[in-house]
Amino acid sequence: MTLLDVSGLVAGYGPVQVLHGIDFTVDAGEAVVVLGANGAGKTTTLRALSGMLHCKGSATFDGQSLVNRAPSAIARLGIAHVPQGRGTFTELTVEENLRLGAYARRDKEVDADIDRWFDVFPRLRDRSDQNAGSMSGGEQQMLAIARAMMARPRLVLLDEPSLGLAPIITQGLFAQLAELNRELGVALLIVEQNAMLALSIASRGYVLETGEIVATGTGTELQENDEVRRAYLGV
Amino acid sequence: MPLLEVEDIRVEFGGVVALDDLTFSIDTGQICALIGPNGAGKTTLFNVLSRLYEPRNGRVIFDGTNLLDLPPHKIASLGITRSFQNLALFPTLTVLQNVMVGGYRSGGAGAVREALAWPGVARDERARAEQGRALLARLGLAHLADRPAAGLPYGTLKRIEIARALAARPRLLMLDEPAAGLTHSEVDELGGTISAIRDEFDLTVLLVEHHMSMVMGISDHVVVLDFGSKIAEGVPADIARNPRVIEAYLGTPA
Amino acid sequence: GGGDRDDETTDTTSGGGNGDEAIIDTSNCTGDTATGIEGNVIKLGTSLPQSGLYSAFAEILRGESAYFEYVNEELGGVEIAGETYQIELVNRDDEYQAEQTVAAVTELINDESVFALFNVVGTKNNLAIRDLVNDQCVPNLFAATGSPAWGNTDYPWTLGTALVPYPLEMKALVDYLSANDPDASIAVLRANDDFGAAYSETLKSLIEGTDLTIAGEETYNVELFDTKSQITSLAATNADVLVVGATLIGCPDALINVGASSWEPMIYMSGTCTSKTLMEAAGDDADGVFTVLPTLDPANPANDSNEAMALYKEKVAQYQSEADPTNGIVAYGWTAAALLVELLEQSPAADRVAVMETARAFEASDVGILRPGATVSTSADDWFLGETFSLVQYNLADQFFADVGDLIEEDGNTAEYTPESLING
Amino acid sequence: MNTDRFTPRLLMTVVAAVLILAALAYLPQYYGESQTKLYAEAIYIAIAALGLNLLTGYSGQVSIGHGAFYGLGAYGTAILMFDHDWNFFATLPVVAVLTFVVGAAVGFPALRLSGMYLALITLGLATLFPDLVTRFVKGTGGTSLVQPRNRPVPPEWAESFASEPDQWWYYITLAIAVVMLVLLWNLVRGRFGRALLAVRDHEAAATTVGIDAARVKVSAFAISALYAGIAGSCSVLITGLANAGRVEVFQQSIFFLVAVVIGGTATVIGPVVGAFVVVFLDDWAGEVIADKPVLSPAIFGIALILLMYVLPDGLVGGSRRAVAVLRRRFGSRAEPIAPPVPT
Amino acid sequence: MDLFLSQLLNGIGNGVVYASLALALVLIFRTTGFLNFAQGEMALFSTYVTWQLTDWGLPVVASILISMALAFIMGVVIERVVIRPVEGGSPLVAVIVTLGLFLAFNSISQLIFGTESKVLPSAFPDSSWDVGGIRITAQTVGLMVVLAAECLLLYWLLQRTKLGLAFRAVSSNAESSKLVGISVGSMLALGWGLSAALGALAGAMVVPTTPALTAASLQAVLVYSFAGAALGGFDSPLGAVVGGITIGVAQALTIQYIDPLNDIELVVPFALIGLVLLFRPSGLFGRHVVERV
Ligand SMILES: Nc1ncnc2c1ncn2[C@@H]1O[C@H](COP(=O)(O)OP(=O)(O)OP(=O)(O)O)[C@@H](O)[C@H]1O
Ligand SMILES: Nc1ncnc2c1ncn2[C@@H]1O[C@H](COP(=O)(O)OP(=O)(O)OP(=O)(O)O)[C@@H](O)[C@H]1O
Ligand SMILES: [Mg+2]
Ligand SMILES: [Mg+2]
Q: Among B108, C306, D235, E1, which residue is least crowded by beta carbons within 10 Å?
């Protein structure tokens, strides 16, 4: 079943158009990767989907249109976003950041979930009372991911989740994402430069170049595409 | 001969020990990589070297001078500049202006003379602009010179930071995760650029990076931090095999 | 809008007049001294705060307008040397800011071509324009404060109003104390400006040679109106008398603070504080407070039988229905307007110099709601009006000021009691 | 920043400047005294706004207390002229030094503060200054008003265009303003201006390339104080007096800030345009509802709010946007549309 | 000694007045992240409304409550209508807009309610007690009780509730707040509403300590309230109270004991703030935020 259905999406900044009508889908419980060079429009795509940018075209999530819906309403539909630049609430503590992740939830299992993500990123547990703004770059990246997960979303938009993470943490993170995806059926839309790792957990991928999708296919198909190998896999 | 000697540097924040009596040195002309898990204290060390953080104890000797005796704005004159892990550009300035700020120290005429358009002021200004354009061209950014910095792609911004740091004509260039957010091919290209500018500008480079391909590819020497202390040091090939480093930092790729 | 440069007629270069021989030196007045009179209309200008924090003074304008409308409509106008003129009053809002007064007055003189300025409000505001009116030979009539500065003979074109000059208030107090409590100790609360200085400096000079003593003095910031700590400090002196050289909300604030302490001095309060709203604000603590009044108290129902008071209330109700006639500020405006009409009618010619000369040898009684029998006058060596008044005491039960003793007549004496620097500073 | 020597844009700027100057110079020939005065007021407020823009626009430090420096300048000039019979022009360097030094002295502790804490300290300054004046200045009639009588008279050679003193005063103010504008222009276009913007945008990064952020910020504070001081001096020339009430000082401070924001922060010409808008808007607000003067502040306030809606980036930013839109519409040149860049 | 105590008490009496308005400032800062220059004038307007209600014969407490409710609505509407268009833009623009509101509110209050001063009855009894020769008024005690309650309530709201967390999130990072599902617009409107209501309460508490309600009633107080809030730290309710009281006491003691500073006693609070901010740039109780590079 198609969870996210995007077609003809156009978005940009003021007079500058960045996305020139892109189409793609994410099925329920699927993990999809978006590859693309610097400035290709990956971040723009994710921001448009979570309502942070004015956009045209069509994008539906579970049958509901996302176009020009308020970001907070989109979040409440079950879409979480790990933004590029992390979007930390710098003046708040680590724990408060995580609680905010669960803002739209009404259930009583928030504490249990915090614990769960503390297990994934033990550094966060050690620093649960530290001001998030004073954490190291990688620590904040962990926080951003954990915060998004706290919403128990149906779809997570991850914008370069491995940015600034140590290799060992990156490996753990992707293992965890794969598990979430497998066990809980959380759909993932991952923008990632570590293409090898990302494709290893994804079922499909898209390649974005200057605002247009130029290639698509399953993980293995892409891994065999020469263009992709040269630019994104470094082999 | 060491250009920079870090001795017993200790930084604490409340209960957190960010640097735990760290000691190491970098030889002139080296590319020295500083790696370690998140929160190991790499950026903190950069901040100590730029005098943004005050260490509890220790000394930092750069070419015979104790850095810790100087105010932050004197560090650049000594020959140390850097890029930032979290982008630190001047978003309202154009790309060229950003780089020209890097050349602040060259040909400073003083505000009064500038206000009076004293002879020489315009010449200095032109020289700075020319230097800026040359650096941008060197880093493949010439076409962006008159664009405002805000809104450019992440990787481009990182390169502008390098250009700005170079504009101050440093002897030691410190780069904090310059390859973050780049694709594989871009990472390789940047690695090449860094080696090349080291040679062209006679630099010593201190590099923090989580892209192991780049670290292993271009560095002469690697220092590994964990919890603020040095856990290993050596040539890249040795470090890659060091079990402690693998356990704390590298992991075993799936 | 812009006017043409070419109709400039007055010379603006010279210094102040020199008031001894001819009262008014007109040698520099090159302009048309009948400017502002066109046909049977005489145009006057005023500037006062109508917006901002001091806009309560705008009520003066209602009192003035009521009187002028009454004169224009019912008496046919003001008669000057056999001709009758309708009065037109052009007003400007200066927010009580001196530089705005200057701008407003420049405009009134140059663009509106008023005959004279009338009842401009505020000491600083009038000081700021006194060179200007001197230079341009425009009468500035009834400058609306009790500052002693209006006695400065370098400025013959500025005439003070019929408020009691502040120094005379102190004279009345000292006289009263000398008679009733000759060795009283006096505590002084004063505003931190020239206004406060007028009280404290006159008082100090007047008690020289008497057995009265100053027990303490505290200044308060007029722009803050808060006197609590000052009163606490003065209360510690336990003086017999408190002089409140305060204005606006500072007056009731001081009274309330005295009431809240265990100190029970006789209180003398500035004559500027007598408005109904301020007295109401002081509540119970206003009982028995002394002050002076040059006019009848419009809030005192006993005065309603007075003919002038009845006329005042009737006409205000008729012409300015939004105004509250029991508000002393409205009553003040009415009386000032009546004085002006009286002055114009006494003038031998509809001419600036003639009017100003009349102003310098002016005598009037039973004008507006001035006290019956009270005469206000000026002469060559007495530049002050408002020198006839009563010492009064507030009666809380009936909410009005009751006279204490007889009418005080100090005509021509202000300059004598006032330290020279206050007049010519 | 135009590093090239000669561009069509520069030519247009020069032509526009000459035209505007010509219009300003002709003004007092056409208008009467009151109107001339109003323009002169706009011009000296522009001087203060120019300086404040250096602080608020370029250096990012918000001050709502520059009315105090303006007052200091006004009193400096007025007292020297009145008590010591100085020539107006002789007072200017003294005022410049005085306000510069006091500005630096205030700017120094202000270094540690930012945002609203700084705004607050400057508000304190605006509140305190009138009290100090009331306390220490005994001027005309014992009040804090100081009114020099020796304002400069038009010299003979100026007879043809400034026969009236108010015209002469206007021209003096205009000349001072032009000089101050040119000086500031030179200053912000170059290394110093860039350093200010850099410190504002990212202080740590600016420090690491060798900019002494403290020094740069204190300089900005001191220079802006100097500009406000000179504006105050000019106000004495025009109004003939120095005065400082709490309301006045606060209002002046607000006028300067509003002029900066309405005109366009971090642009050279913006504050000048803004000053004219503020002065004439205020004048208009006082007259528009003649029988309800009590409403005039409300009208002024609401007009400000509406202006901010229409021109959130100020008049200069707004007109740049308008030009960009026109260019795109008529596609005359395929020049990339650069977002507002400081000039 | 008695004199000292009396002055101390005067200071506290004034200080609680400053503190009550300072609390409203803190609330708006915590909830929306900026400083509302119109805060005092909005409170003034509400105070006039309270006066009008008492003048129509309503009991004081009821008038205050109604006026607070109206103020809440007014705050929400102002945020929605006036502030919304400039939100997310340059903070300077917002400053100018609140300055515009400041002017508008002052003058509209005068237009509607007239320029004559009004006497606003106090919510507290007019009694006082003599304690060892020092007079303590019910007014001061009542104000302190209300303040303590406000302070606790605010602390609880901001620090202990989900709503409070959302407020803090919005003022820290509006964009991320949206991403976690917080309706930023509603939070801002709510913040304005709450602080307007608190301002209405403050006005109704403060004005009866002065002789009368005029258009200038809150302006002098507001300067001290700003000072108090700065001293305590703009983001701390407790700081606002401590800061306000400190300023009041410093002022009273200066008037009594430092004669050369008479009538320029304002020097003292500002010197105090300068000093404190020099050592603690976020005020006594303010949270210092580290921005990393
Ligand atoms: N705020 C902005 N204003 C103007 N242009 C922008 C802005 N943000 C991005 N752009 C432009 O939009 C294009 C796409 O940017 P986007 O951030 O989506 O790229 P990306 O694929 O995420 O790349 P990366 O994250 O590696 O930088 C780029 O050319 C960029 O310059
Ligand atoms: N101001 C501060 N207050 C408290 N803790 C701090 C502060 N600054 C840094 N830290 C802590 O010090 C440790 C070292 O941080 P640092 O930024 O140097 O890490 P790093 O090695 O650069 O990590 P990364 O690879 O994630 O960038 C981290 O755990 C961080 O949380
Ligand atoms: Mg991106
Ligand atoms: Mg780091």
A: E1
Q: How many CA atoms lie less than 13 Å away from D126 in the CB half-sphere?
A: 27
Say how far apart CA D275 and CA D262 lie, in whole Å: 8
State if residue B155 touches ligand 1 by the CB under 6 angstroms criterion.
yes
Chains with 3+ CB–CB pairs under 8 A to D are A, B, C, E
Ligand nearest to the CA of B154: 1
Query: Coil, strand or helix: which one is E144?
Result: helix
Residue with tokens 């807009």: E97
Query: Cα torsion for C94, C98, C99, C100, to the nearest 10°?
Result: 0
Strands A212-218 and B229-234: unpaired
Rg, C-alpha atoms of chain E: 19
Judged by a CB distance cut-off of 8 A, whether residue D152 touches chain C is no
User: What ipTM was reported for this prediction?
Assistant: 0.92
What pLDDT was estimated at residue A235?
62
Is residue E137 predicted with pLDDT exceeding 70?
yes
Q: Do chains D and C touch (3 or more CB pairs under 8 A)?
A: yes
A100 pLDDT above the threshold of 80: yes
Instruction: For residue C35, give both structure tokens.
Output: 């400017």
CA–CA separation, A34 and A38 (whole Å): 12
Residue-wise DSSP of C177-199: HHHH-TT-EEEEEEESSHHHHHH
| Partners of chain B (3+ Cβ pairs below 8 A) | A, D, E
Q: Is the pTM here over 0.90, yes or no?
A: yes
Determine how β-strand C400-409 pairs with β-strand C388-395. Answer: antiparallel
Confidence band for D331, pLDDT divided at 50, 70 and 90: low
Contact C164, C150 (CB under 8 A): no
Could you give the CA distance from residue C207 to residue C189 in angstroms, rounded to a whole number?
16
CA–CA gap between residue E18 and residue B222 (Å, rounded):
59
* E177 vs A103: CA distance, rounded Å: 9
User: Is D337 touching B (CB cutoff 8 A)?
Assistant: no
> D325 and D315 in contact (C-beta within 8 Å)?
no
Q: Any idea which ligand is nearest the CA of B95? A: 1
Burial B52-64 (b: 16+ CB within 10 A, else e): bbebeebebbbbe
Residues of chain E with Cβ-Cβ distance to A133 below 8 Å are 289-292
Strands C41-48 and C116-118: parallel
Q: Which residues contact A201 (CB under 8 A, 6 or more apart)?
A: A31, A174, A177, A178, A181, A188
Per-residue pLDDT of B118-166, as tens digits, reads 888 888 899 999 999 999 999 999 999 999 998 898 889 999 999 999 9
- Cβ atoms of D141 and C149 within 8 Å: the answer is yes
Instruction: Kindly tell me if the per-residue pLDDT of D313 is higher than 60.
Output: yes
- Average of pLDDT values for C117-134? 94
pLDDT of residue B81: 96
For residues E173 and E17, the answer to whether their CB atoms sit within 8 Å is no
The C-alpha atoms of residue B155 and residue B15 are separated, in whole angstroms, by: 35
Q: Which amino acid belongs to residue C67?
A: Y
Residue corresponding to tokens 């707040």? E177
Structure tokens at E21: 């308005």
CB count, 10 Å around CB of E183? Answer: 19
DSSP labels for C246-304?
--TTHHHHHHHHHHHSS---EEEE-GGG--HHHHHHHGGGGTT-EEEESB--TT-GGGG
- Give CA–CA dist C283/C256, Å, rounded: 8
Contacts of A92 in chain E (CB under 8 A): 165, 168-169, 172
Residue partners of E172: CB distance under 8 A and separation at least 6:
A89, A90, A91, A92, E33
Which residues fall within 8 angstroms of residue B17, CB to CB, at 6 or more apart? B10, B11, B227, B228
C-alpha to C-alpha distance for B164 and D209, rounded to whole angstroms: 8
